Backbone:
């Protein structure tokens, strides 16, 4: 009798688990700090029997502003949206804008013995046990900590002079006249008890410039673009960066700053 009850209980739990998964999805593993922001580029790699590229945002964001890649170099904000081909890189476009042996390592280089060295695996590393030349933990061990994402407070790291971001690539970027960023403003929370958002144009403009957000992601006029947290969770608006590369949604109070009275 006890065995029969246990079997029935097991079936009910299993059925409930299947229904829950069907209705609410499955729980995903939170990415490790060194994995957060990694992007797999696979438009054509596997079709040509080559391992896909694993692009590590943390390495690049420690050197360049987001605007350099997503405005000047023309990388799309969606994975695979740039439709990059190896021929493009060889012509000095996209990755080839920097990976030319001058700004960064090229696809082929020469070692001290003046022998040709293929650097393919340094980018086409998906599924391979490739040791990075820059170790994540060693490189960032003295950086100010954060609770989520890469577990690094990148803004404080820049304030402390641990990183100095380049905002242009020679021969590609154009000189821009600096403008005074608009003042911070509140975004009203529609959830009872949730603090309002204080949005800082200054912080975002220093990293992204104006062009990354306006007018494609947000409109040019304040209040004209309507969105909610469901849109953001779906990867739109603020979600175009946050949870993908910028700090994730778990840190609610980093945006919802205004005290509730």
Residues:
């Amino acid at each position: 009798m006890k065995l029969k009850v246990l079997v029935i209980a097991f079936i009910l739990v299993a059925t409930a688990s299947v229904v829950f998964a069907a209705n609410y999805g499955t729980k995903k593993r939170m990415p490790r700090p060194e994995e957060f922001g990694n992007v797999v580029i696979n438009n054509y790699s596997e079709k040509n029997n080559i391992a896909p590229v694993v692009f590590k945002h943390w390495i690049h964001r420690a050197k360049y502003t987001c605007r350099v890649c997503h405005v000047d170099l023309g990388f799309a904000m969606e994975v695979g949206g740039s439709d990059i081909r190896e021929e493009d890189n060889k012509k000095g476009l996209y990755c080839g804008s920097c990976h030319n042996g001058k700004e960064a390592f090229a696809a082929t280089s020469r070692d001290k013995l003046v022998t040709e060295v293929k650097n393919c695996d340094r980018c086409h590393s998906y599924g391979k046990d490739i040791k990075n030349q820059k170790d994540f933990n060693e490189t960032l061990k003295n950086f100010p900590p954060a609770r989520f994402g890469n577990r690094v407070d990148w803004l404080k790291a820049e304030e402390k002079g641990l990183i100095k971001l380049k905002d242009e690539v020679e021969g590609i970027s154009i000189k821009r006249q600096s403008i005074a960023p608009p003042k911070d403003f509140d975004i009203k929370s529609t959830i009872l008890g949730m603090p309002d958002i204080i949005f800082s144009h200054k912080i975002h403009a220093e990293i992204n410039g104006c062009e990354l957000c306006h007018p494609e992601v947000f409109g040019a006029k304040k209040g004209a673009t309507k969105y909610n947290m469901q849109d953001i969770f779906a990867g739109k608006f603020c979600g175009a960066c946050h949870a993908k590369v910028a700090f994730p949604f778990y840190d609610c109070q980093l945006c919802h700053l205004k005290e509730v009275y």
User: Anything to note?
Assistant: Strands lie at 39-41, 53-55, 108-110, 116-118, 185-187, 197-199.
